[in-house]
Write a sequence for this structure.
């Protein structure tokens, strides 16, 4: 029995969706998975059945895992407490492999690197942490990890700059194309259920979190500029996040001042089925983010036959090309809006079959075998 300790930031992020897709490449009779994740003010530690489809907050509550999990209230600033906690986890589970997908808190992870247990350090969070950690700390962690995995070629370049000679294995977070059916569901009914106009051109963005990069205010500002320049009904939809948050309230207040609040919808957290349904019922996907290590929503939107508009930043250039979307080379809202207007007028020229094939390389059927080969080399 192989025990894998999987460490990730939160049970509401896309990380867990990718994790459970990857579980299908494991030998279910020989794999034990321990998930260590952050929930509210606690670290949770619990075993996960490898037959599980997803690990969301609703799933955890439904199965009673939040109550049964090892729950530890940890001061984020206390490295000594974290160090002791991590040692306890290693002693308790004796994992054969440690997979650090993202950091749960700013604790002392050196206990993992100092052990003889192979560590997969996924580079997905490291590019963002360029701003959070000093150079020596980041480089030391990269050097200590037994294996560094990158989620895009662009990210691999960053890692290569940080540590001379490092050659990260590029393995993409997989999408599951068999659950992304462009023909499923009634577009009209799906829109009506969420109060979205049936005949509007719908731009969609999806993100669990709001921050400087995934910014609702910038989303609304961009939408307002598009609305000013078109007579065609347009609607802007954001899937995910908490609509009660300050950022959304500021964004909707801005839309209201222009008399355009009715053109914007923030759904709040959506289950997987609703997310796919809403994305499939939209006309195009717009990313207003300035930084993307790899954009799962872009790959999934394209698989659903929706062209994607994004700034040319990081991993999206490995997904988006002329036959499935547009990349805006300048970090200019003006250029972005011009591209959005062009896409709106020309979106019928995109072929859904061609778009779907353009992202097949990111499907689990392709990436799963790469992950399996990666695990077998450790």
């Amino acid at each position: 029995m192989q025990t894998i300790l999987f460490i990730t930031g939160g049970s509401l992020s896309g990380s867990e969706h990718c994790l459970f897709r990857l579980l299908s490449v494991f030998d279910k009779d020989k794999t034990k998975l321990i998930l260590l994740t952050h929930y509210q003010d606690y670290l949770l530690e619990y075993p996960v059945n490898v037959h599980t489809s997803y690990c969301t907050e609703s799933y955890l509550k439904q199965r009673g895992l939040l109550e049964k999990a090892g729950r530890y209230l940890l001061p984020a600033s206390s490295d000594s407490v974290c160090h002791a906690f991590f040692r306890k986890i290693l002693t308790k589970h004796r994992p054969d492999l440690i997979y650090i997908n993202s950091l749960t808190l700013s604790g002392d992870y050196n206990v993992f690197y100092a052990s003889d247990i192979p560590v997969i350090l996924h580079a997905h969070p490291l590019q963002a942490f360029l701003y959070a950690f000093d150079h020596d700390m980041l480089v030391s962690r990269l050097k200590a990890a037994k294996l560094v995995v990158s989620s895009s070629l662009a990210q691999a370049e960053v890692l290569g700059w940080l540590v001379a000679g490092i050659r990260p294995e590029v393995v993409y977070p997989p999408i599951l194309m068999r659950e992304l059916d462009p023909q499923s569901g009634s577009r009209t009914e799906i829109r009506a259920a969420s109060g979205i106009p049936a005949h509007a051109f719908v731009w969609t963005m999806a993100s669990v979190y709001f921050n400087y990069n995934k910014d609702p205010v910038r989303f609304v500002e961009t939408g307002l500029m598009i609305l000013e320049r078109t007579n065609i009904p347009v609607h802007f939809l954001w899937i995910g996040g908490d609509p009660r948050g300050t950022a959304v309230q500021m964004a909707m207040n801005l839309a209201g001042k222009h008399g355009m609040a009715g053109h914007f919808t923030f759904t709040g957290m959506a289950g997987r089925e609703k997310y796919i349904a809403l994305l499939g019922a939209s006309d195009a996907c717009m990313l207003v983010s300035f930084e993307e290590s790899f954009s799962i929503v872009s790959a999934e939107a394209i698989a659903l036959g929706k062209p994607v508009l994004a700034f040319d930043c990081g991993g999206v250039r490995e997904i988006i090309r002329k036959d499935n979307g547009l990349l805006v080379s300048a970090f200019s809202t003006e250029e972005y809006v011009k591209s959005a207007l062009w896409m709106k007028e020309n979106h019928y020229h995109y072929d859904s079959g061609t778009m779907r094939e353009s992202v097949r390389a990111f499907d689990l059927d392709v990436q799963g075998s790469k992950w399996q080969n990666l695990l077998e080399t450790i």
Remarks:
- Residues 41-46, 49-60, 62-77 have pLDDT under 50 and may be disordered.
- The first strand starts at residue 2 and ends at 7.
- Residues 178-360 form a domain with the Rossmann fold fold (CATH 3.40.50.2000).
